[in-house]
Amino acid sequence: MKILFKALCCGVIISCLFSLSGFFSACDDIRDRVFRLHIIANSDSPEDQALKLRVRDEITEYTKDIFRDCRTKDEAIKAASENIDDIRHKAQEIIKKNGSSLDCDAYVTRMNFDTRVYEDFSLPGGSYDALRIVIGEGQGHNWWCVLYPAVCVPCAEKDIGSALSENETDIVHDSDRYAVGFRFVEVFEDIRSFFTR
Questions:
Q1: pLDDT less than 70: residues of the chain
Q2: Cα–Cα distance between 38 and 36 in angstroms, integer?
Q3: Which residue, 66, 54, 59, 50, is CA-closest to 89?
Q4: How far apart are CA 93 and CA 95, in angstroms?
Q5: Which residue stretches of the chain are H helix?
Q6: With 0-12 CB in 10 A as exposed, 13-18 as middle and 19+ as buried, what is 1?
Q7: How far apart are CA 161 and CA 150, in angstroms?
Q8: What are phi and psi of 44, to 5 degrees?
Q9: Are the C-beta atoms of residues 182 and 128 closer than 8 Å to each other?
Q10: pLDDT of residue 154
Q11: CB within 8 A of 28, min separation 6: which ones?
């Protein structure tokens, strides 16, 4: 009886791993198709957090023309890279206009994100390409959105599903159903990044 029980448990575990492997693969595809914007505040002081939000508002407005004609994530990354000095200059101008002497930096990078919920969709944790703007020391809470497909850019005509398969769209829009899977993905990505450093 014990052997039968152990065999049944092994079968259930193997079945779960096989079903999660498809979910993991879909999460990898989502990360490969999405380009994110990440703005990190100098600190968590009310002034620095308010400044971060002002930078957010003006940068998303400023970049809508930069990303408007992008049809792929690679085009969005290329547009960000080609305009990085202008984006950095604009962010610095916003900071100065708001009475701060803080410096900022802007660059395109690949970085890890936790699973995040954004209004009516979620993104699995893991490594994403991102346009990152760091204000001052970059020690405060951050703000993020999706530049491609255009979700955070005002007047965007696309939604995140425009660049994803039907299964991937289902995953990002039904966070309650996939909450446990997202947690497994986060743990797996943490382990993977630990061994690939």
A1: 1-2, 4-22, 24, 118-120, 151-197
A2: 6
A3: 59
A4: 5
A5: 2-33, 46-67, 73-82, 84-97, 166-173, 179-195
A6: exposed
A7: 10
A8: -95, 10
A9: no
A10: 42
A11: 126
Query: What tokens were used for 128?
Result: 């994403």
Looking at residue 186, its pLDDT comes to: 58
Question: 38: closest CA among 140, 121, 119?
Answer: 140
Pairing of strands 116-118, 121-123: antiparallel
pLDDT value of residue 18: 46
Polymer length of the chain: 197
Amino acid at the residue 48 = D
pLDDT at 55: 96
DSSP 5: H
Q: For residue 171, give the amino acid letter.
A: I
Tokens coding 19 = 């079903």
- Residue 63, exposed/middle/buried by CB under 10 A (0-12, 13-18, 19+)? buried
Does the global pTM surpass 0.85?
Answer: no
| Amino acid identity at 109 | T
pLDDT recorded at residue 100: 95
**Amino acid in position 140:** G
Contact of 23 with 181, CB cutoff 8 Å: yes
pLDDT at 153: 45
Q: Which of 58, 150, 137 is nearest to 105 (CA)?
A: 137
Q: What are the residue boundaries of the structural domains of the chain, listed by start? A: 25-195
